[in-house]
Design a protein that fits this description.
single chain; about 0% strand; about 280 residues; mainly alpha
Amino acid sequence: MLTATLRALRRNHAAKVAVAVIALVVLVGLFAPLIAPHDPNIQNLDLKLRPPFSEPGYLLGTDKLGRDVLSRIVYGTRVSLLVGLAATLLSGVVGAVVGVISGYYRGWREQVFMRLADVQLAFPSILLALAIIAVLGPSLLFLILVLGLTGWVSYARVIRAEVLSLREREFVTAARAIGDTGPQIMVRHLVPNIIAPLATIGTLQVASMIVAEASLSYLGLGVPPNVPTWGSMLADGQLYLRSAWWIAVFSGAAIMTTTLAINVTGDLLRDVADPKAYNR
C-alpha cells in the first residue's frame, strides 16, 4: 500500500500540498517551545487587543489579556494533534476489535455489538461527548477517552463488513483446515487485511476529532481554561469580531487548514485502498 500511496501522491498535486501542510503542523506541535515567541499564558494588559504587526515580536497581535495570539496558536497545535491522534487511535482499536469479532464469529456476539452500535448512533456523538464532559469536568484525559469511546462505531461497521467477506476466502478456509483457532485466524489472517480501511477511516476521523475538540473547547468543556486551544481562542474572539477580528480569524484558519489537509490526504488513501477508484 505504501508504494501505491507514493505513486498516487506523485500524481495528485493537491495531496502533495496537503501532506506538506500536515508535516508543517506536526513540526509546529513537536517544537512549539522553540517556535513560539512568547509564553502563551503570559498576560500584559498594556498590550491587549493589539492588531497584527503593530508591536515588535507580536506578529499576529494580542488578545483581550495581552497574550500573544501566535504563541497560543502554536501551543494549541499540540492539543489538537494530541486529542485528534489519541482519540482516533482509541476509536480504531475498539472499533477494529468489535468489527473483527462480530464479523468472524457472527451469532449472538454480532447481535450484541451491532445493537450497541445502533444505540450509540441514536445519540449524536458531539452531544453525547458534551453531556459526559459536562458531568466529569474539563480534562484532557477525559476528553480523549470520551471522544475515543464515542467514535468506534464507524470503524466497527466497516471492519465487520470487510471481515464478513474475508472469512469466506480460501486462505481462511485453509487456515481452519490446518487447525488454526479463531483468535489465531483473526490475528494472523484477518487483521493484516483490514489495515487499509482502518488507515483510511482513521485519517478522516483525525480531522473530525480535531473539530470535536475545538467545538467542546469553544463551549468551555474541552481542556482546562489555562491550556491554549484553537477552540477556546475562537470562543474568546467571538466577542471581539469587529474590534479584534484577528483572534478568531487566525485560530479558525488554523482549524480549517489542518482539517482540510487531513481530509485531502484521507481522500488519497481512500482512492489507493479502492483499486477501482484509484484506476480512474
